[in-house]
Design a protein that fits this description.
The structure is a homodimer. By secondary structure, chain A is an alpha/beta fold. The first copy, chain A, has 21 helices and ten strands. In chain A, α12 runs parallel beside α21 and α13 packs across α21. Chain A is globular. Chain A starts with 12 loop residues before the first helix and ends with a helix.
């Protein structure tokens, strides 16, 4: 998930100033409301050394009534704490109803520092995931609002920050030998963070990754996320006791400012490939794909390839080029449109399970189970509860497939609105392509923003180490096709 | 859990006849209602070889409209099935809305025969528990009613049935060499069943253990449980879309007949101990307890001892005798009454976590977290949703404690109503004991039946391999004290 995050989000000082006062007032008000409604709140701050946890926590508590919260810094467990089950020290610090507990690092130490530094054996930190999920579920079922922040910076930024601290005598002491070692272990931590997000990003206790290069941006995003979670719960408390979901993407509570992760915005759509290079590359890759298809068959590896993307993003042509040189006995392309009545009468995953490739075969899904969190979400074909739950359901399912040995490759074909318009109009002008463009396509186009938000959340929540998304820059079709072919070749080579 | 089951439940033929017709009519009606409401239903039959799965399934489908259900016998996976992720063959057989799927053996084969026969390695069947829980949760979240039966018979009964089959030429072929081997492996299977119940008995897909020595009793219990689950769901569907819980104990839908497991009824309360034997035994055990307390300290084992039982069952005196000879620096007795305001303001487990013994120490809980599923349930201090959830919460929590190395010993002190009355009256007659008896005690006594049902369900759902309940026959106090002391001695010896 982290690789998809655009870390260069920034907020000009003037904009920060215009927002912060109002957010502080709102969070203060919400804290009072939560106290009145007896809603307990747990806020967790995790993240890289020097990512700015201290600053953010400070910016948060400055806005709060000090009688209503407590900050718990988490260090290595003391001797007393070691004598109890490991979650003991966190259980006894859970907040009373109406109060806030802020954890500066937390129970996640078990799957981060204790894992990376090999302080605990593998069985122990693997077990910790399920202990954590139980713990958080117990709290959430008891109506505690759980908000978890992961402050993310890249290795270069971390280095810069350490160097700045070291350059000044009065701050140099802050950089410990542990910090230096952790910096060298950046990649190990990165992997641990990734796995943590995958395994513990639940509906009841979702993670919010904060792009922390710019502290002003980070502060605004942190406050807005917390405000959003509290407002949802309070709205839920007021409406017939139904629980509010606090796992939806951050709404634009901060006014016109968009704080959601902007994976799509940072895609470079100017990528393109000259015709001659396309032709030689596609020939070469096509040959390699045929070889790999045979190897996959011999080694009994099932391969699942998913195509999702905007209308007119070129899925059909891309798929055709991918399978063009392959042996048809080894692969199958299955297109999915609206479900039939029989399919509607089953769980939404059922129709996809039915055509799952058997070991040694390749299935290309032209649209897929991701419809649940795209079209079904945006068009209201399923409830918020249903699509919110689907991220985890999908991750769990794909994990099972990968456990079985499957390779799962997922493409999101990205084009911009202007390009889509050009293609729609071209379709309408060209008689033999008119069938491809319907009123529905135009209607969907009007909901571009809603779909964008859904795509962003999908990419963030379902890009896992075992089944990552590949975003394909698809304004230029030749480039898109080569990128997809290359990605498949690489994924299969890695697996074989 | 299984050891607590009274297998000798029986139903006279006349009573069976008077019930079966009405149950068949009701299940037929419910099937039609479920079809109309588009409620899909999955029924799973697991159990010992020769436990009578075939008979029960037959008795079920005779009452059903054949157009609305399908029976899936589950054998070893075929070659085609082996080429897909292991749950594939079950996923594609999930029922359409409004239909019933009946599984004669099921996905539990992975943690039963495939485990016991070592067909799959340990990692695989351990992983299967979480795959199964995800699978069932996905189905349940999609509004599928899941009813799972485990047909239980003891080893002797199984042998008798095999011998009967073998004695007759026309049935002898039914007893395969696999069956014979499984019979020899009775203890291995027993353990596998126990673990299966513990790990997959969830709120969304609870197990019902059926005492299967008597097929008439088994049939009635199976039908009644299924009727109950369907009625609850249909009632839920009719009341503003709220999901019905189908995990509560079987109500007396079969009229005056009590079908719930009757753990308490089979307790032999005539157990007693002559005064002289009591005195020598308690002296000996007391000495041993002191030694063990020191060993526990040296080996840093935390020990958690829970006392629950009826009012006036003698918890206080029993605890006093237990700790009488022990070193007070190593143990603590913590009594729990109604929670304080501060305690109410936290999760119900919080006050118990706070006093959890540290490694090397012993804490005796005079009443405990089981209040959630006893007094809080019966008196309506928490919602059905809350106490239904609590069984799993408690099991998960105790599992964490045991993972940490704790020994968890739980006593239920059982007396009968007549004995309680004698003790209440004695308390009222004896001036220095009058403080012990309050109006509340009398009120609780009136709810004996409700409490009994709660106790039964608690014993069944929270007696785990890692933290089993010990039922103490407490009509005779000396007997009860010695049994508790012995149990603690044995549990500590086993651990050390």
């Amino acid at each position: 998930m982290l690789e998809k995050i655009d870390l260069n989000r920034k907020l000009p000082k003037s904009e920060y100033k215009s927002l912060i006062g109002e957010l502080e007032r709102r969070i203060g008000k919400l804290q009072r409301d939560a106290r009145k409604l007896k809603i307990p709140v747990v806020v967790v701050f995790e993240g890289w050394d020097a990512a700015g946890k201290g600053t953010l926590i400070n910016n948060l508590i400055l806005a709060l009534d000090p009688r209503g919260f407590k900050v718990y810094p988490t260090n290595a467990p003391t001797q007393e704490e070691r004598l109890r089950p490991w979650l003991w020290r966190f259980w006894i610090r859970t907040p009373a109803r109406g109060r806030l507990a802020i954890f500066d690092r937390s129970w996640y130490g078990k799957v981060l520092v204790e894992r990376v530094d090999e302080i605990v054996p593998k069985e122990e930190w693997t077990q910790a995931y399920s202990d954590i999920n139980s713990f958080e579920r117990h709290l959430s079922d008891d109506q505690i609002v759980l908000v978890k922040f992961l402050l993310h910076i890249d290795k270069k930024e971390q280095k810069k920050r350490f160097e700045k601290l070291l350059a000044n005598k009065s701050t140099a002491w802050k950089v410990t030998s542990d910090d230096k070692r952790h910096h060298r272990q950046y990649n190990l931590y990165y992997r641990a963070f990734e796995e943590m997000l995958e395994r513990t990003g639940t509906e009841w206790a979702p993670w919010t990754v904060i792009e922390a290069h710019d502290k002003k941006f980070a502060t605004i995003k942190m406050l807005t996320t917390l405000i959003d979670a509290l407002e949802r719960r309070i709205a839920g408390s007021n409406s017939q006791g139904k629980e509010g979901h606090h796992d939806a993407p951050v709404k634009e509570s901060a006014g016109p400012l968009d704080l959601s992760t902007s994976i799509l915005n940072s895609v470079d759509l100017s990528e393109n490939l000259p015709r001659d290079r396309y032709s030689s590359a596609s020939k070469k890759l096509g040959k390699r794909l045929l070889e790999l298809e045979h190897e996959v068959f011999l080694k009994r590896v099932p391969v699942i390839i998913v195509y999702e993307g905007w209308d007119a993003a070129g899925k059909g042509g891309n798929i055709r080029r991918l399978v063009q040189g392959m042996d048809p006995r080894g692969y199958e392309v299955v297109p999915f449109a609206a479900p039939t009545q029989e399919e509607k009468d089953h769980h939404y995953m059922w129709r996809f399970w039915r055509v799952l490739p058997k070991a040694g075969h390749i299935t290309v899904f032209d649209r897929s189970w991701y419809g649940r969190v795209l079209v079904e979400r945006v068009e209201g074909f399923c409830s918020e509860e249903q699509w919110s739950r689907a991220y985890r359901e999908i991750n769990e399912t794909e994990q099972q497939w990968c456990d079985f040995g499957a390779v799962v490759i997922k493409f999101w074909l990205q084009i911009d609105q202007a390009e889509q318009l050009r293609r729609f109009e071209a379709r309408q002008r060209t008689p033999h392509k008119q069938w491809k463009i319907t009123d529905e396509d135009w209607r969907n186009r009007e909901k571009w923003e809603d779909y964008s938000a859904a795509v962003e959340e999908m990419l963030l929540k379902t890009s896992t180490t075992y089944a990552p998304w590949t975003i394909v820059e698809a304004n230029d079709k030749p480039f898109a096709r080569i990128k997809a072919m290359k990605t498949v070749v690489q994924a299969l080579q890695r697996r074989l």
